[in-house]
Structures are given as C-alpha cells and as structure tokens.
DNA sequence: CTGGGGAAGGGGCCC
DNA sequence: GGGGCCCCTTCCCCA
C-alpha cells in the first residue's frame, strides 16, 4: 500500500502506483488532503441534511422541525451526546428532541455551524447563541461567542474615535473547523488565545435579528437540564471574566483573580500629575465605554433561561433559572439578576467615603460600617471587646476603628498625629476631593475622637447612591 | 513559609 | 422583586 491515511501528520506520500524506486511524479501533502477531505465530507453531510437524506434525528424547536444526523449531533454537542447515549430508544430508532429554551433562529445558527463550521454571530444573537451553546454543551461555540463579545468590546474601545472599528451592530461570521474540538484543543485555544482574526470576519448585514428578544421569560421548557459534572461547560464558570478589563476599577475579576482588601485597591499618589490626569481621563473613558457595553449586554440579554432542576417528591418539576454566561442555576430570577453582576462587572453601589464600588447594597453597608464608621466594638490593637464608651474612635484617613483606653494610653496620644478635630462633624465623603480619598488622607491621616456614636455625631452616615456610570464619568 | 484575621464577594433563603 | 440576613469561600496582609 503506497498511501497510508495518516490524517494527523503533515507528511508526503507517493501517489498510488508509484514504486519506491521510481522517481516520484506527484507528491501529496496529507495536510491538504485532510482539509480537502474534511471539507468535502462536511459539505456532503450538509447536503444530506438539507435534502433530509439519512436524517435519523428530529429536533423540534418551538414547533419548528429540524432534521439532522444523530452521529453529527452526537459528535458536536455534549447535550446530544448524553441524550443519544442515554435515550431509551437505543441506537436503532430515530430520536426526537424538543427545545423551547431557545429560538429556531438560534438553533439554525447552531446547526449551520455544526454542518459548515460557519458561525453567524451578530450583536443581536451572540448572547442567545452563547446561551443555547451553553445549554447544548458546545464548548467551542461558547468560546467563539465570548471572543466575539470580547473582541467587540476591545475594538470599540480602541478604535471608536477613528471609526475603524467593526461595529457591534454589524454581523460577523466566524470560520472554524466543524464539530467540537477536543478538550486538549479547547484548553490550548482558551478564551484569550483564539481572538478571531479580523481577516476571517465577513460582513453580512442581511441577517435579521432573531431569538429570545421578546420571548416570555417564564416559558416552560420541555427539555431537562443536563448537569453532567464532566461537561466541558462546567469548566467555563469563570471564563466570562474575559469581558472585564483587569485595569478597570469598575470591574473585578471573578474567582481567583478578584482584587480584594487593602492591597487590592489601587491608590493614587497624593500629588496627581498631569499625566496621571490624562490617565484618569483615559481610564474614565474606557470605564464609561465598558459600562455602556455592559448595558448593551444587558439590553441584548435573553430572557432568563428556565430549566428544570429536579423533581419534588410529588413529581412536580422545580424550575431553576440558568445563567447565560455560566452553568450556574438559581431558584429565583432576582437571584440570577444579582448573580449576573459578577459577570457584567456592574457595581452600582459606590462608597461615598472611598469611592470603592460594590455589587450589592449590603456589601456597601457592611463595608461602610466596618471601614468608615468603626462599628466593630473591638480594639484594633489588642482585639479586646470595647463598648461605645471605652472604645475610642481612631481616624486614619477615611478609615475609622476603635481602640481601648489602655491601648490609646500605651501608644500615647502624642504618637498619634492629632487633627484639628473639626473633622468629626464632617462625613468622610465630604473630606474627599473628587479624585478620591487621598486628598483627605494627606490632610488628616490620624484622628482620635471620643464619639460614642459616630454615625450620629460625626454625620458619617451612609449615603446610598446608585450611580449611572456614564453620567458620572462624563462629569 | 505558614497560619490567623480582616475584608470582600457570592449563594441561599426569609421577610 | 427588592432588601436583608446568614453563611461560606477566597484573597490579602501581617506577624
């Protein structure tokens, strides 16, 4: 045999009929052969699907019937893999699947991708395609969607002024190898490493908006959620952090890359230079655009996908709501809305004292009481319990904490830089310049007060203000 | 290097 | 649906 099908290696083989001692007349590059063969095979399968030849699987999406090949679906989707391998019908009979959790238009995009490697994404459908891909456990599609979003954000921020960007409103299509990649490929690919090369993007403004928009968020579903722990989707729970800019104070990195604590908050030098001001403007501009993009994401977010988590003893299904960005499900829509903030980076609750932002009001309140109001009745130095009478409040910048009388005497008031004590009647937020706490810090790094109830006497009340980022940053 | 503590973030669930 | 509480985990700082 002169030719060996070694599809994985890029090798040269003689054409059939040529002996080894003959001068080769033609050489074949197997990489080219492989690509051509795969392309041809895919075209054939796609033709068969369109002609409904050998289709042994019916997929009903909101009443619209799609015919496909079971083996192709099996190879492309973790969901179908599980469905087809666990189905009661076995492998000999045709299989039906019904979906109401995404639209026929969305499934068309998915199915076209499966059979052609072309993923038609637009700003209108990317979220719902990603949601559907998450449901169908198609890791590669999820990655493409995330990169589409990421690229759109990056391009828009960088190039908006020069109008060279590919607008989000335009439709793009990714070209990819068909089918699901291996896990190894996916790891190599990673959400950051497969930014779609712009050259591969083709504009197609003809595609209409599709999908979830306008659908009933409380719609029932007929397909149960698959909670396969081995599902590749489960590996993606934190990957949407790609949507966030690590340099952006508005955004935090979910999971392990979160910035927390004192060391995590970037502090500006007291003397802000002109270049710093320029940087501030740049950061604010980027922050504004990020916030706008988050708003855009919210605007295009599909109604929450309901899935059936499990059944009660009475065999009543318990509906859960699935996050379109990860595999997390919650019982209540409100909880999902709260959860979504960890993906969008939205932090609507700024601390008036230190400008730090929080995703939840209770976190802001807790932060404010702990950091700025010295509500903890514990001596910071010796950790002993103090009362409001014995616990003197020490102010360090906008930070306030309590020390017991003994520790105050031990340290000595002389060693604590005393301020003019006109501060207690000012609330921390008022001590600050617009740029943050450092101005206040420089002026009054330490203060000791005998206020027993700082909240009342100092006026350090928590002012809850929900800030519209875009408006705030433009000021 | 390690363990403890503080602060922050997130989920579940009750009101 | 929002607010709030409780609990747990994670991260960072510091001794």
What ranges have pLDDT less than 50 throughout 5 or more consecutive residues?
A: 1-25, 155-173, 175-283, 417-446, 451-460, 468-475
CATH class of the domain at 33-153, anyone? Alpha Beta
Strand order of the largest sheet: 4-3-5
Mean pLDDT across all residues, rounded? Answer: 59
Which descriptor suits the 3D outline?
elongated
Return the structural class.
Answer: alpha+beta
Give me the Rg, rounded.
30 Å
Our measurement of the CA-to-CA distance between the termini, rounded to an integer number of angstroms, reads 76 Å
Major sheet: 3 strands, mixed
Helix content: 25-40%
Give me the CATH architecture of the domain at 33-153, please: 2-Layer Sandwich
Pfam families: BTB (PF00651)
InterPro entries: BTB/POZ_dom (IPR000210), SKP1/BTB/POZ_sf (IPR011333), Znf_C2H2_sf (IPR036236), Znf_C2H2_type (IPR013087), ZnFinger_BTB_dom_contain (IPR050457)
GO cellular component, one term: nucleus
Function: May be involved in transcriptional regulation.
């Amino acid at each position: 045999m002169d030719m060996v099908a070694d599809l994985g290696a890029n090798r040269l083989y003689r054409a059939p009929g040529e002996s080894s001692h003959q001068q080769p007349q033609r050489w074949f590059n197997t990489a080219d052969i492989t690509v051509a063969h795969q392309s041809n095979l895919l075209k054939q399968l796609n033709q068969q699907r369109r002609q409904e030849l050998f289709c042994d699987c019916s997929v009903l999406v909101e009443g619209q019937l799609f015919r496909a090949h079971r083996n192709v679906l099996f190879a492309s989707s973790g969901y179908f893999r599980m469905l087809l391998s666990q189905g009661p019908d076995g492998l000999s009979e045709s299989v039906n699947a019904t979906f109401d959790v995404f639209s026929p238009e969305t499934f068309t995009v998915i199915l076209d991708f499966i059979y052609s490697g072309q993923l038609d994404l637009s700003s209108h459908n990317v979220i719902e395609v990603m949601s559907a891909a998450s449901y169908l456990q198609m890791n590669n599609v999820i990655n493409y969607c995330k990169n589409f979003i990421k690229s759109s954000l990056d391009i828009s921020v960088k190039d908006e002024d020069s109008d060279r960007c590919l607008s989000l409103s335009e439709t793009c299509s990714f070209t990819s190898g068909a089918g699901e990649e291996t896990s190894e490929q996916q790891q190599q690919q990673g959400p950051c490493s497969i930014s779609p090369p712009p050259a591969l993007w083709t504009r197609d403004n003809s595609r209409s908006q599709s999908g979830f928009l306008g659908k009933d968020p409380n719609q029932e579903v007929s397909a149960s959620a698959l909670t396969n722990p081995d599902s590749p989707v489960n590996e993606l729970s934190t990957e949407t952090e790609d949507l966030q800019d690590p340099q952006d104070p508005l955004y935090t990195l979910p999971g392990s890359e979160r910035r927390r604590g004192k060391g995590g908050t970037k502090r500006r030098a007291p003397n802000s230079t002109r270049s710093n001001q320029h940087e501030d403007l740049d950061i604010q501009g980027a922050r504004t655009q990020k916030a706008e993009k988050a708003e855009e994401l919210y605007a295009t977010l599909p109604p929450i996908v309901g899935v059936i988590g499990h059944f009660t003893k009475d065999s009543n299904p318990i509906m859960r709501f699935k996050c379109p960005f990860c595999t997390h499900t919650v019982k209540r829509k409100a909880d999902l809305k709260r959860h979504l903030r960890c993906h969008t980076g939205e932090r609507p609750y700024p601390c008036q004292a230190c400008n730090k932002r929080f995703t939840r009001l209770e976190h802001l309140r807790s932060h404010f009481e702990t950091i700025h109001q010295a509500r903890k009745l514990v001596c910071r130095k010796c950790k002993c319990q103090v009362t409001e009478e014995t616990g003197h409040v020490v102010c360090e910048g906008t930070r306030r904490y309590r020390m017991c009388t003994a520790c105050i005497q031990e340290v000595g008031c002389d060693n604590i830089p005393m301020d003019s004590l006109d501060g207690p009647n000012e609330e921390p937020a008022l001590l600050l310049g617009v740029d943050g706490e450092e101005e206040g810090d420089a002026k009054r790094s330490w203060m000791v007060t005998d206020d027993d109830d700082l909240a009342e006497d100092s006026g350090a009340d928590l002012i809850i203000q929900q800030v519209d980022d875009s408006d705030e940053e433009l000021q």
